[in-house]
Specification:
The complex is a heterodimer. Chain A has helices spanning 5-11, 38-47, 77-93, 108-114, 146-155, 180-191, 206-209, 213-221, 237-243, 252-262, 313-326, 346-349, 352-362, 380-388, 391-398, 447-456; strands spanning 14-16, 23-26, 29-32, 57-60, 96-98, 123-126, 140-143, 157-160, 164-171, 199-204, 230-232, 275-280, 287-289, 297-299, 341-344, 372-375, 401-402, 423-426, 441-444. Chain A is of the alpha/beta class. The longest helix of chain A is centred in the N-terminal third of the chain and has 17 residues, at 77-93. In chain B, strand 5 (134-138) and strand 6 form a beta hairpin. Chain B has helices at residues 21-24, 79-87, 99-108, 117-129, 157-165, 169-174, 177-186; strands spanning 6-14, 64-67, 91-94, 111-114, 134-138, 143-146, 149-152. Chain B is of the alpha/beta class. In chain B, strands 4-3-2-1-5-6-7 form a 7-stranded mixed beta sheet. Classes of the chains: A alpha/beta, B alpha/beta. At the A-B interface, helix 2, helix 3, helix 5, helix 10 and helix 11 of A face helix 3, helix 6 and helix 7 of B.
Chain lengths: 465, 199
């Protein structure tokens, strides 16, 4: 029987296999950041261990860094200590780091692909659940906890139980105004936040193949929101074209050897998935969330659902609780919901294509009165690229804020936060209670919906303008 | 890591599904560089509500958290495990855990036990009727018992052995460095390296 893509990558990395034990898997790239690494480095010091492969390790500062005044010391002393700790650890253990102010600094999942370090067929881990982003290249990439970070630092391996595989087939073509963000929000609404647990997802089908690399990253990024630790897409010419010429891409004979190998990285025709899901891209429309987990979403044209419409008692209770937290009434049209803040950024939608798409909608228009729009590039490079294209001027002219790179308002651990009761339309990945700041209310949206919402002040799609 | 063989204590019923790690410990509490002290952030937002179960005096000494389905979804932060442990929890019982949270918990010695939802409901009711009721979680027998009820649970033998011996994974892997070295010799030359820095 043939193998799935995930199985192929897995098998290529098994260092040791013993019956009754998890496989020991080799890790090709370990990305680290300030929040989930300090205790791991401490562990190494306590045991007198070294970082086994500093040359397969890369650190960046992203989660708790400010996106304003980045040339000044970080104002919050606790955040500053955490960032300083990362810098000291990297220096002590010989790990490459891109610090605040460095041209390669940015969100770890934007930086890896941009440097060409993310390549097909690799195993990539990071102490961050959105590591699934790198699956867009046909890599097996997943988030790990701090104990595992320490394990990888010390051994460059991880003991792991082999996951099951799920195919998510998306056939057809997207209508104008519908993006890969809408695909993944629709998938999560369909299979729920627990539907992918224990699986690696493989996104397949004509609608997926038609996507750019950045759009593919948006989909894989949110695999974890469906409960799957990893999600991947078979590499193709789009992938190879994206990688070629990047700083760490193979060159010369190495490039040829790499491409030859990469071309083998697809699920065999007779491969059997443990589960298959089907979605028709033609039927999709812009999708938004109404609740407090990413599975609680509806098409933007619809209304806030009535909790009584859920058959499952757990879902019904969760919906009731969510509406209470979100201060929403069942039956309200989603497009009537007024937002205070629009956040464009994050490892989900903070890449250059996202900024271009939003800028094209915003150009020549104004952000609505009493609405604030924050635009936060995913990396310093993305910011520079956007500025070279004049996108910053488009956003600024519309009345939006133009920031420096970081995780920013995706999670409330840096100065960019919602105030209690504030409502956002956010291109990020999680609408959990308080995720963007204590008491804040989040609606997850695509960059196009974010831009249209900023102009109208209520949840909107570009077609409403 | 401390050995886990069995634990007996009282329970606390957390009647909520989809408790994500941002609820277990909000991001703003993740800035410490130590492994201790995270109990102050445990369920921080919900603890403002006097009616929240953790605030009820009858559950003050509970060491076994019984939660709704899909506990620990979202972020990979191991701080969620540390917050629960720092607070005093030894065991979390649910009908389904998120993969990363479960991995983190079993690495750190916080036992996560999966029971069918029906058993969770029964356990919730029993605890609410008698908050002082003793619940015994036995890893040797792979069972949870209270009153006259005993329920078995599944856990793979390897993880169970590691928990019962209190072994950490790194030490175990370090015994196999030969295999790692052999693997490294065969790795494809075209695989990228972060050093030296290329531009």
């Amino acid at each position: 029987m043939g193998k799935t893509l995930a199985e192929k990558v897995w098998e290529d990395h098994v260092v040791r296999r013993n019956a009754g034990e998890p496989d020991l898997l080799y890790i090709d790239l370990h990305l680290i950041h300030e929040v989930t690494s300090p205790q791991a480095f401490d562990g190494l010091r306590l045991s007198g261990r070294k970082v086994r492969r500093p040359d397969l390790t890369l650190a960046t500062e992203d989660h708790n860094v400010p996106t304003l005044d980045i040339d000044k010391p970080i104002a919050d002393p606790v955040s500053r200590l955490q960032v300083d700790t990362l810098r000291k650890n990297c220096q002590e253990f010989g790990v490459r780091i891109h610090s605040l102010g460095d041209v390669e600094q940015g969100i770890v999942h934007v930086v890896g692909p941009q440097l060409g370090l993310t390549q097909p067929g690799m195993t990539i881990v990071c102490g961050d659940s959105h590591t699934s982003t790198h699956g867009a290249f046909g890599a097996l990439a997943f988030g790990i906890g701090t104990s595992e970070v320490e394990h990888v630092l010390a051994t460059q391996t991880l003991p792991l139980a082999k996951p099951k595989t799920m195919a998510i087939n998306v056939e057809g073509s997207l209508k104008p105004g519908v993006t890969s963000k809408d695909i993944i929000l629709a998938i999560i609404a369909k299979i729920s936040t627990g539907g992918g647990q224990g699986y690696v997802l493989e996104y397949r089908g004509s609608a997926i193949r038609a996507l750019s690399m950045e759009a593919r990253m948006t989909i894989c990024n949110m695999s974890i929101e469906a409960g799957a630790r990893a999600g991947l897409i078979a590499p193709d010419q789009t992938t190879f074209d994206y990688i070629q010429g990047r700083p760490h891409a193979p060159t010369g004979a190495d490039w040829d050897a790499a491409v030859e190998y990469w071309k083998t990285l697809k699920s065999d025709d007779d491969a059997k998935f443990d589960k298959e899901i089907y979605l028709n891209a033609d039927e999709l429309s812009p999708f938004v969330t109404w609740g407090t987990n990413p599975g609680q979403g509806v098409p933007l044209n619809e209304t806030v659902p009535n909790p009584e419409s859920f058959d499952d008692p757990e879902e019904r209770t969760a919906a009731q609780r969510a509406l209470e937290y979100m201060d929403l009434d069942a039956g309200t049209p989603m497009k009537k919901i007024k937002v205070d803040t629009v956040f464009l950024g994050s490892c989900t939608n903070g890449r250059i294509e996202d900024l271009r798409a939003a800028a094209a909608i915003i150009k020549g228009k104004k952000v609505a009165e009493n609405t604030r729009m924050m635009v936060v590039p995913g990396s310093a490079r993305v910011r520079l690229q956007a500025e070279s294209e004049g996108l910053d001027q488009i956003f600024l002219a519309a009345g939006a804020e133009w920031r420096s790179a970081g995780c920013s308002m995706c999670l409330g651990m840096n100065p960019d936060q919602l105030k209690p009761g504030e409502r956002s339309a956010s291109t990020s990945n999680r609408n959990f209670e308080g995720r963007q700041g204590k008491g804040g209310r989040t609606h997850l949206v695509s960059p196009l919906v974010a831009a249209a919402t900023a102009i109208r002040g209520t949840l909107s799609s570009p077609a409403d303008l | 890591m401390e050995k886990f063989i069995s634990h007996t204590g009282t329970g606390i019923p957390l009647r909520r599904s989809n408790v994500d790690t941002d609820q277990i410990i909000p991001a703003v509490y993740l800035k410490r560089v130590t492994r201790s002290g995270f109990e102050d952030g445990l369920f921080a937002a919900w603890r403002n509500d006097p009616e929240f179960v953790l605030n009820k005096p009858e559950y003050a000494k509970a060491s076994i958290l019984v939660a709704g389905i899909d506990f620990g979804t979202g972020s990979s932060r191991e701080h969620a495990v540390w917050a629960l442990q720092n607070y005093g929890f030894k065991v979390v019982i649910s009908s389904r855990f998120a993969d990363i949270f479960r991995g983190n918990s079993l690495k750190g010695g916080l036992l996560t036990v999966i029971l069918p939802q029906g058993e969770i409901e029964a356990l919730w009711s029993a605890i609410e009727q008698d908050p002082a009721m003793q619940i015994a979680v036995d890893l040797e027998k792979k069972s949870v018992s209270y009153k006259d009820r005993e329920i078995g649970f599944d856990l793979d033998d390897y993880t169970r052995w590691r928990l019962m011996e209190g072994l950490d994974d790194i030490g175990l892997t370090m015994r196999n460095l030969d295999a790692v070295e052999n693997f490294e010799e065969k790795r494809a030359k075209f695989k990228p390296k972060t050093l030296p820095v290329l531009s």
